[in-house]
């Protein structure tokens, strides 16, 4: 695995606009991992915490919410299985549409 970037440095890079892309991937065990591309580096670099390398999240919506709070509005997601979030809705037909 490539060198990892810690969460504290990631925040500084986001605020300084040093990160170009964000990628969320899913492990076989269902955990989610965040990787970034920054400073003209072509490889994806995983995010780590003090306790875990790489840092993982149990829920996709928790990770997405954390990115949103950091000001990130666009990221890529690669999933290996269906994800059920707390915001899952059934698609319902709209009423009063002309036929």
From TrEMBL:
Top-level taxon in the UniProt lineage: Bacteria
Protein name (record): Uncharacterized protein
Species annotation: Pseudomonas abietaniphila
């Amino acid at each position: 695995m490539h060198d990892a970037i810690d969460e504290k440095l990631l925040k500084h890079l986001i605020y300084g606009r040093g990160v170009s892309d964000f990628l969320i991937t899913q492990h076989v065990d269902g955990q989610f991992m965040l990787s970034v591309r920054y400073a003209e580096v072509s490889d994806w670099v995983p995010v780590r915490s003090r306790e875990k390398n790489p840092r993982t999240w149990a829920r996709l919506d928790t990770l997405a919410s954390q990115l949103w709070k950091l000001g990130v509005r666009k990221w890529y997601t690669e999933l290996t299985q269906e994800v059920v979030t707390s915001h899952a809705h059934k698609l319902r037909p709209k009423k009063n549409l002309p036929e």
